[in-house]
Amino acid sequence: MGHRLSKIYTRTGDAGTTGLGDGNRVSKNSLRIHSLGEIDELNACVGMLLTETLPDDVRALLTDVQHDLFDLGGEVCIPGMSMISTKQVDKLEAALDAWNEDLSPLKDFILPGGSRAASQAHLCRTVCRRAERMLVGLAQEEAVNDGPRQYLNRLSDLMFVLGRHLNKVDGHGDVLWQKGKNA
After folding, report:
1. pTM to 2 decimals?
2. Eight-class DSSP state of 82
């Protein structure tokens, strides 16, 4: 790969623009850059979740997710590029189905909580939903492939199920919402 980041600051963004992977410069306030920022934040949240003690299968999948999110960011950074396909979406669906199979059916809403790892999975879910909304906004103004939107949609579902799965693994149950508890 070479020494691509040999100099960290370039001063090229001092005027409020930044370079895309295709060489074009855009405002740092563009929807494309906001989308990249949300994806980057999501990847950092997944990294925080990976600092927890996790089952091996969860750790392996989340490590793959981090690489996928970097690819997804690359796709958003280079208009017209395609890096996220049904292959990555299908992998999330398979994990989602496997972890959800061992969980009791939901009859009530749950609160984000329980174990620390489960709470971090829920935080990843909320950041993922925000990244997805931003990408949908970008797609309303510019061409965006379907793969990244599908991936983020499935990843947020996975993080919800993962939160429940991690609570079960840690011996916690779901934290159920109690309507009007403090009324």
Report:
1. 0.90
2. -
Q: pLDDT tens digits, residue range 86-138? A: 999 999 999 999 999 999 999 899 999 999 999 999 999 999 999 999 999 99
Report CA 174 to chain centroid distance, whole Å.
22
Q: CA neighbours within 13 Å on the CB side: how many for 114? A: 27
d(CA 35, CA 162): 24
Is the CB of residue 114 less than 8 Å from the CB of residue 170? yes
Distance separating alpha carbons of residues 141 and 132, to the nearest angstrom: 15
Q: How far apart are CA 131 and CA 34, in angstroms?
A: 9
Which residues does 4 contact at the CB level (< 8 Å), separation at least 6? none
Token pair of 170 as six digits: 């840690």
